[in-house]
Each structure stands twice: as structure tokens, then as C-alpha cells.
Specification:
alpha/beta; 14 helices; 13 strands; seven-stranded mixed beta sheet; two-stranded parallel ribbon; Aspartate Aminotransferase, domain 1
């Protein structure tokens, strides 16, 4: 049997991580993997997370399974965080998942079960695993224009023109905030136009929100998702707690299925629980319990939000530093888009050849599509990166 297996394409980010580890240069810079790092290059455990874990350790008396959907209190807390009061709770079915990736996978599984002929429209570019999972599941994906390589902003006219080609019942996958890999985001009026188009053409929006709080603030980053969810008949939302709670290894996510149809919530909830059972039975609980503890305790939630705001502002400061250094070196504001982008990532919009040149000549490690992780920078590495960009002729 095993002799029939074929090698699978290597994950480019994981391969890049290994190359970085093998590089002996002391001034090398890792801008590849999508993990937040502070100025010391450490991915810290947040204060509120430590406090919540201590409370759980003291109070928890069992490690028995939760339900197939996970702890309902976790779903309630996350729905409140993401959607606030924009959608009535009885319209929403939700299940805990192993990270945001698990939520994406379960969402795609639900689409395939409910509408096998549905195509999934994905932004060009998008997080590579979106397309990889769709391909593995045998689902058709269609790219829509999103990033303008000249302006390094959203190509909204191209996006809307491509989405007008979608058929009723097709799914539109949208990044809720802090677009990965580009860092270029829709404004609220553009979100409204997308919602109007979705309704006009009978499409189903699916929102991947993995960086809430990393862009313009917790409520600001959720505004697009809230607008869409409150104005369409049906919607899927896949959420991750990896970044904004810093609990990457705990694999903590949530999938929501929203419907305005009366009595749809019960069927949707049972279906999501069924899909959990088929894929991994009971979802992991520790990270979800940490998140629930934080979000339902006023003091912990306040401290978490304060530390998250510090993280957000630190990334904005790094964006300003890099854009300023590039302006100083080039005498041009053509890299000003870096300061305008939001979240962990920006897309330089250059070629794989120039990305490789920066790696070879300057020890700059970023994904070949020129996505750089802003959170991988610090005050010392900003000038190194800026010089590499200029020397490579980006």
C-alpha cells in the first residue's frame, strides 16, 4: 500500500523556517512564519492567559470530554467578541475547532455537504492553505482580483467585477481584517458594497477572521464581519484565537453558521456537531477554556485588551519605522503603503527572484510571494530590511 504514496508539495513556509535555522549569519531576519514576536524576538504568553491558566489549574477537577461542539460558554463568549449585538444569538450555530484552520476545514466540509456544486471564490492572493484544503476536498475554487501590485492597495473594481461572475449559491471567501498575505483591507463602504452584491446575486459569504485586534482595534476589525452577518440571509464565519490571545499551540478556533431562517439554528448546530464527530470527535478544550475565562471576567478582559492594544500599536510603529527608513533611503514615498497596511503582514509586490536575492545577500527570510511579517521586525532589523529592499531594487 505505502509504495503507492506520492510525495506532496513541500510547505514553502515550513521549508523557509528550516533554511532560516540552518543559516549561520547572526544578523539574519525571519519575516516568514506568521507568528507575533516582541522586540526581543519572543512570542510571549499574555498576562491574562497566564492568570486564566492559573485559575483553571486551581479550579478544574476533571479532564473529561466536553460536548461535540465544545463548551457552549466558549461559543457565547466568542460570538459576543466577534459579532457583538449585530446578530441575534438564536440565529447562530457554532462549534469549537482545532484552531482557525480547523474552522476553515469544517466550513468547507459544510459547504460541500450542503451544496456540492458550489464554487468558492477566493482572493488573489490568499492564505495558501485556503486553496490547498479546497483542492484536497475536491472543491472548485475561483480566484477573484484583490491586490493591485502597482498601488499595493485593494483592486476593488477588479474584485467586484470578478464577483459579479459568481453564480447563485457560490461562496465568497473574505478576510475579516488584516488580509493575509497583503495587509490591504476593505473599508466599511466597500464591505457594504460586497454585502449588497452578495444579496443581489444570491451568494454565500464565508469570513475568515484570524487577526481581530491586530489592525485598528477589536471592534473596528470586526466591523466588516458584523455588517455582512447582519445583512445577508446566510453566512459562515471561521475564527482563530491563535494571534490575538497568543495561544498558537493550543489550537483554539470557532466556526459559526448564521441563518435568518426560522428554526434553521437547530439543524445547523446538529450538522456542525456531526462534522466534528467525523473529523476529530471532541474539540480541544484548554485554549477555549482560557479564552472563556478571560472574556467572561471583567478584570482579565480589560488586561487582555490592554496588552493586545500594546501589540497592535507596536506593529503600527514598526510599519511607520520601515516606511520612514525606506523614504529616507530612496527619497520617495513609494513604500508608504507599508504604513497604510494593517495586521501582521504586508506584500511588497515584488518577484520571487528579488526575494531570493534579499535572502542570499542580506539574510532576509520572507515568503517567495514577498509577504513579510511586520511582527518579525524590531528597531535593529528595520534598517537591515530597508537596505536589503533598496539594494535588491524592489
Amino acid at each position: 500500500m505505502f509504495e503507492n504514496l506520492k510525495p506532496q508539495p513541500a510547505d514553502k513556509i515550513l521549508a523557509l523556517m528550516q533554511m532560516y535555522r540552518d543559516d549561520p549569519r547572526q544578523d539574519k531576519v525571519d519575516l516568514g512564519v506568521g507568528v507575533y514576536k516582541n522586540a526581543e524576538g519572543v512570542t510571549p504568553v499574555m498576562r491574562a492567559v497566564k492568570a486564566a491558566e492559573h485559575r483553571i489549574w486551581e479550579a478544574q477537577t476533571t479532564k473529561a470530554y466536553t460536548g461535540l461542539a465544545g463548551d457552549p460558554a466558549y461559543a457565547d463568549a466568542m460570538i459576543d467578541l466577534i459579532l457583538g449585538s449585530s446578530v441575534e444569538r438564536d440565529k447562530i450555530a457554532a462549534v469549537a475547532t482545532p484552531g482557525g484552520t480547523g474552522a476553515i476545514r469544517q466550513g468547507f466540509e459544510l459547504i460541500r455537504m450542503a451544496s456540492p456544486e458550489a464554487r468558492v471564490f477566493v482572493s488573489d492572493p490568499t492564505w495558501p492553505n485556503h486553496v490547498s484544503i479546497l483542492k484536497y476536498l475536491g472543491m472548485e475554487s475561483v480566484a477573484y482580483r484583490y491586490f493591485d501590485p502597482e498601488t499595493r492597495a485593494v483592486d476593488f473594481d477588479g474584485m467586484m467585477a470578478d464577483l459579479k461572475e459568481a453564480r447563485p449559491g457560490d461562496v465568497v471567501l473574505l478576510h475579516g481584517c488584516c488580509h493575509n498575505p497583503t495587509g490591504a483591507n476593505l473599508n466599511l463602504s466597500q464591505w457594504q458594497a460586497v454585502a449588497d452584491l452578495v444579496n443581489e446575486r444570491g451568494l454565500i459569504p464565508m469570513i475568515d477572521i484570524a487577526y481581530q485586534g491586530f489592525g485598528d482595534g477589536l471592534d473596528e476589525d470586526a466591523a466588516g464581519a458584523r455588517l455582512v452577518a447582519s445583512s445577508v440571509p446566510e453566512c459562515l464565519i471561521a475564527a482563530s484565537c491563535s494571534k490575538n490571545f497568543g495561544i498558537y499551540r493550543e489550537r483554539t478556533g470557532l466556526l459559526m453558521a448564521l441563518s435568518q431562517q426560522p428554526d434553521a439554528q437547530a439543524l445547523n448546530q446538529k450538522t456542525l456537531a456531526f462534522l466534528n464527530r467525523q473529523n476529530y470527535s471532541f474539540p480541544p478544550d484548554h485554549g477555549a477554556r482560557v479564552v472563556t475565562t478571560i472574556l467572561t471576567d471583567e478584570a482579565l478582559r480589560t488586561d487582555w485588551a490592554r496588552e493586545l492594544e500594546d501589540v497592535r500599536l507596536a506593529m503600527l510603529d514598526l510599519r511607520q519605522q520601515l516606511a520612514g527608513e525606506l523614504q529616507r533611503l530612496t527619497g520617495s514615498d513609494r513604500f508608504g503603503f507599508i504604513a497604510e497596511h494593517r495586521g501582521m503582514f504586508s506584500l511588497l509586490g515584488t518577484t520571487p527572484e528579488l526575494v531570493e536575492r534579499m535572502r542570499v545577500e542580506h539574510g532576509i527570510y520572507m515568503v517567495g510571494d514577498s509577504r513579510l511579517n511586520i511582527a518579525g521586525l524590531n528597531a535593529q532589523s528595520v534598517p537591515i530590511l530597508a537596505k536589503a529592499i533598496v539594494d535588491a531594487g524592489v
